[in-house]
Design brief:
By secondary structure, the protein is of the alpha+beta class. About 15% of the residues lie in helices and about 40% in strands. The strands form three sheets. Strands 1, 2, 5 and 9 form a four-stranded mixed β-sheet that branches. A three-stranded antiparallel β-sheet has the order 4-3-8, with no helix packed on it. It has a two-stranded antiparallel ribbon with strand order 6-7. A hairpin with a 4-residue loop joins strand 3 and strand 4.
Length: about 140
């Protein structure tokens, strides 16, 4: 990090979390801690989740301090289109956390209500991970 580089908070709830397959995208960011957000509900989309602005019993998120460049890098993964957020797969909104307002990627597409995760955290499905491992072999 360069001296004086301003950081913003980013809350992640899926594959960007520590130990999951896209955690490397958070390289160079500063892990701040965890929080439970009751203003979002997660939906299991298969290989990754999507959050919607819907009340929940509390979804576990990890909070990171990121630079503007790091945030723009994650925007690519999340298909966030700053000029027309409604056209991307995700919008990026600032929502309150126990550490202050943090950016959260909110899913823009239709979801299946049966896949809702209204409490706790999203976990990758083992059958998907096993299929990807088999494809690599």
């Amino acid at each position: 990090m360069k001296l004086g580089e301003e950081r913003q908070l980013l809350a992640v709830y899926g594959t960007l979390k520590r130990g999951l397959n896209n955690a490397h995208w958070m390289q160079g960011s500063v892990y701040v801690g965890t929080d439970v957000m009751d203003g979002i509900t997660l939906y299991d989309l298969g290989p990754y989740p999507g959050a919607r602005l819907e009340p929940s019993a509390g979804v576990l998120v990890e909070i990171y301090a990121v630079t503007e460049a790091q945030l723009r890098h994650v925007d690519i993964l999340e298909d966030y289109q700053s000029e027309a957020p409604q056209l991307g797969m995700y919008d990026r909104l600032r929502l309150p956390t126990c550490y202050g307002d943090a950016w959260v990627y909110v899913y823009n597409r239709v979801v299946d209500p049966a896949t809702a995760v209204r409490e706790g955290s999203w976990q990758p499905r083992h059958d998907i991970a096993e299929t990807k491992d088999a494809e690599r072999s």
